[in-house]
Design a protein that fits this description.
Blueprint: H1 16-34, H2 44-68, H3 70-76, H4 78-107, H5 118-162, H6 167-183, H7 185-203, E1 210-211, H8 212-230, E2 234-239, E3 248-249, H9 255-266, E4 273-282, E5 285-293, H10 301-317, E6 323-328, E7 332-339
Parallel strand pairs: 2-4
Antiparallel strand pairs: 1-3, 4-5, 5-7, 6-7
């Protein structure tokens, strides 16, 4: 029996954003120390530049070491891993301090203090590193826990969406297929294929992205099944041929929107209605709008729960650059998905 992999609790210093944040934090400490009262330096800008160079050098070495040792630190456990990482940062600081003094002496640059002051230099660097390392490791650890918690909640929401196909939809679909077997066997066979594909997609892994084209194809299969059940009561007007179907999209983002349109908009109306699907591209990315009629007094909470779920998943996947917009009037309800193109900044 295979064992579950250990959770990656240690901060990921291999990420450029984490390295950049560490460098900014280190530089902020240098600037604060340079502006501290009581420091009378002959060349403050020169000292600021030298201190910045040294601190950034140490920060990059620490980030590189913590990046390479991350798998081992994860296996060591939280307390031991953080303790070892903290000691590693201090050791790198001491080694870098002595190395800087040795290079200065060897090259004859006279940038550091005389020999008897070397101990004070190392002690001061060690004290600053101890304070900065404690704050940085704490911050990045909390941030990593937040990311892990967000990822867990996102996966749980995806699994909830995968399991949300209503039993009535399955029963109604099976009844529709049974009624078509004798009179229209080719339609029944196609409906079985659509239903199988719908469930296969819903039960597949949510670890990787789908594409906009795959999501739209799934929605067309779903609507084809519902149109057999509702007949003339359901009309769909597609005006979305210009969409970039190769763009990445989290799985099961669009199908629940069409399901809401049928379940909340078309089904409660005796005469049914039309779902208008429009989409296209602009300078900000691509967009897709789904509009349906609303029944008088419709205020079912299921719609809002699904929309909130999808909105959070879009915000998480596209770093806040995608959004879900909802508009409602007395007779129509529309929801619009707006997503940046893959070539846009911050989109993987």
């Amino acid at each position: 029996m295979s064992r579950d992999p250990l959770p990656l609790w240690f901060p990921n210093f291999c990420r450029p954003a984490a390295v950049f944040g560490l460098m900014v934090l280190s530089e902020l400490v240098v600037v604060i120390m340079a502006l501290a009262p009581g420091r009378t330096l002959e060349s403050p800008l020169r000292h600021l530049a030298l201190n910045s160079l040294f601190v950034q050098w140490v920060a990059l070495m620490c980030a590189t070491a913590l990046c390479g040792l991350r798998p081992w630190l994860n296996r060591a456990g939280i307390r031991a891993g953080l303790g070892l990482a903290y000691l590693l940062v201090l050791a790198i600081t001491v080694a870098a301090s002595f190395s800087a003094v040795w290079v200065d002496r060897f090259a004859g640059l006279n940038l550091t203090l005389p020999g008897p002051e070397i101990g004070r230099i190392v002690a001061n660097n060690l004290l600053v590193a101890a304070l900065v390392a404690a704050a940085a490791l704490r911050y990045y650890y909390v941030q990593q826990q937040w990311r892990a918690d967000l990822q867990t909640r996102t996966e749980a929401r995806v699994k909830a969406l995968q399991a949300r196909i209503r039993p009535h939809f399955l029963f109604n679909s099976m009844n529709t297929i049974a009624s078509l077997i004798r009179s229209r066997p080719e339609v029944a066979e196609r409906t079985v294929e659509d239903l199988s594909e719908l469930f296969r997609y819903a039960l597949s892994s949510a670890d990787t992205d789908s594409t906009l084209g795959q999501e739209l194809a799934l929605c067309r299969r779903y609507l084809a099944i519902e149109q057999l059940r509702l007949g003339d009561r359901l009309e769909v007007d597609w005006q979305a041929s210009a969409l970039p179907e190769a763009e990445p999209l989290p799985p099961l983002i669009l199908q629940p929107l069409f399901e809401n349109a049928v379940y909340h908009g078309i089904q409660p109306l005796p005469a049914g209605g039309r779902i208008d699907v429009t989409g296209g591209c602009d300078d900000d990315g691509w967009w897709l709008s789904i509009a349906n009629p609303v029944a008088p007094g419709d205020a079912r909470p299921g719609r809002q729960m699904a929309l909130s779920n999808i909105g959070e998943r879009l915000e998480h996947r596209f770093a806040g650059r995608a959004r879900l917009a909802v508009e409602r009037s007395e007779s129509r309800f529309s929801v619009t998905v707006k997503v940046p193109l893959r070539t846009s900044p911050h989109v993987a």
